[in-house]
Amino acid sequence: MYELRAPSPPPVRELTGSAPRPSPRLLPCLVAVALVCMAVQLAFVIPGSGLGWDETVYVSQAGGDTPAAFFSAPRARGISYLVAPVAALTASTTALRSYLLLLSAGALVGAFRVWRTLVPGRVLVCAAALFATLWPALFYGSMAMPNLWCALGSLAATGWVARALLRGTGRAELLGAGAATAVVVLMRPADGVWLALPLLLVTLVRPRMFAALAVGLLAGAAPWIVEAFAHYGGPLTRIHRASEIQGGLGWNLAVDDQAKALEGRTLCRPCTISWNRPGTTVWWALLPFLVVGGAVVARRAGRGRLILLATGTAVSLAVPYLFLIDYAAPRFLLPAYALFSLPVAECLVRLYAWTRRPAKRPGRTVAAQWRVVALGAVLAAHLAVQLQVTSRVSASSHSTTADFEAVAAALHRNGIRPPCVISGDQAVPIAYYAGCASRQTAGHDGSITPAGLREAARRAPTAVLVSGGGPRPAYAPAGPRVFLAETRDAGPYSGYLFPPPDLPVPGRPDS
Q1: Same domain, 172 and 300
Q2: How far is CA 487 from CA 264, 373, 392, 439, 465, in A?
């Protein structure tokens, strides 16, 4: 006789009951998302764009003919390393933008593909589309800024950790998690720490993965630590100085500032502005509900703990920018948005499936069709808002670039040509466009004393810039104010030249 036995239970997994089979259409769909976003950036962002203030700081460190700008305590060298292959060869902004656009598109596909054995393909494609079409992601996709890279690195690192907890810790998981964490820390050390906190916590029982994350954390921070000992007297002193520059880290409710900045402010500091376009934050207000809904849907599908890991890591990455600093910039939250896209996509895919569910009664068919139309209209409106803000922010950026170029050209006409030194209002980006060194006597970029600036003026043409009809700085020369250009943002730009333009100076042609 045969003995009747109950079937053996499936093996218990740590995060989910089962892993979805990767879809063969996932890669082409992710590539399609990346190509569409590239097309949007080529249409709205890249044409006519120039380097912004922070970009000029990072790019000037990477070689070329422009002197390196002052590198303040909070900054890290990751972006400078990333742009070095192009910046060392050419000063073309278009070449740099194209290079970064291709890299970021590839990184977008790669970061979401890490999750292919954890989350269904349709959810991943939806998540990638939701994240990549947010205006901060579109605007910064080709920018020499670290935040998008932190976002994609955080997404990949969390995915590798989730794969290790689900399938076991193999070599790919160890290398992937360590490398992704190192990239985030190399770009922005603070983001790397907030990323590592939840990941280290969940891997306490996985010594090999814990060690891989710790090694990645230290490897990414190594250049920042070495520089801290070389120029600041140690990491603690540098952290203290970085905190001073950022206005002091402590309890500061910046939720409302982040909401207002979504209307198209790349930096809101101080954020004492009127809220002119509250419609741009509708999606932001819905985000917590969509995340919770996605977590519930994922739990019922056996992916609850996976999505909980992504959500918890996103919350950790968002905490400092919502509650610990007193200013806002939408790009700061890109790492959180990348991870939040997973539960939001879970919710929207389930919602779409519900709208498509066949009606049990013939009379309800029309209602089901209207649900599909309503969901599509909401998503289309959201996309239209993101594109509109992208266009508006890009136009403002292009206008600022034109202002910088106009002031730099006027300085050249007045004999301030390389090698030269520029100080004063917006000296950092204008010096980059003029091919000069920027030297400030005070503030975050303070790198020279008034006496030192006067000494530098004896060796190279030097100018002190004043915007908007402001008063003459105390350290400026006593000569007449020279009008340079009328700008859109700051009004008339003037300069005090060492010596006045009617006197000869070594390295400057007589006028």
Answers
A1: yes
A2: 20, 46, 18, 22, 13
Q: Rounded distance, CA 59 to CA 81, Å?
A: 9
Please tell me whether residues 297 and 409 are part of one structural domain.
no
Q: Positive or negative, the Cα torsion across 427, 433, 434, 439?
A: positive
**In a shared domain, residues 218 and 107:** yes
Provide the token pair at 484. Answer: 């340079």
Listing from the earlier edge strand, what are the strands of the sheet with 437-438? 437-438, 421-424, 462-467, 491-498, 482-487
310 shares a domain with 259:
yes
Q: Is residue 268 part of a domain?
A: yes
Answer yes or no: do 122 and 234 share one domain: yes
Kindly report the average pLDDT of the chain as a whole number: 90
* 279 lies in some domain: yes
Q: Alpha helix locations (H) across 203-333?
A: 207-231, 235-245, 255-261, 282-300, 304-323
Among candidate residues 327, 356, 385, the one where a domain is terminated: 356
pLDDT digits (tens, 9 = 90+) for 222-233: 999 999 999 999
How large is the average pLDDT for residues 229-258? 89
Residues 149 and 229 in one domain: yes
Q: How far apart are CA 241 and CA 236, in angstroms?
A: 9
**Residue 317 and residue 154: Cα distance in Å, rounded?**
9
Query: 164-178, 299-313, 496-510: lowest mean pLDDT where?
Result: 496-510
Q: Tokens for 103, please give them.
A: 């890299």
pLDDT digits (tens, 9 = 90+) for 100-117: 999 999 999 999 999 999
| Same-domain check for residues 142 and 40 | yes
β-bridge mates for residue 462, sequence order: 421, 498
Cis, bond preceding 320 (omega within 30 deg of 0): no
Would 350 be classed as within a structural domain? yes
Count how many domains the chain has. Answer: 2
Q: How far apart are CA 162 and CA 166, in angstroms?
A: 6
- Domain coverage including residue 469: 397-498
Q: What is the value of pTM for the model shown?
A: 0.92
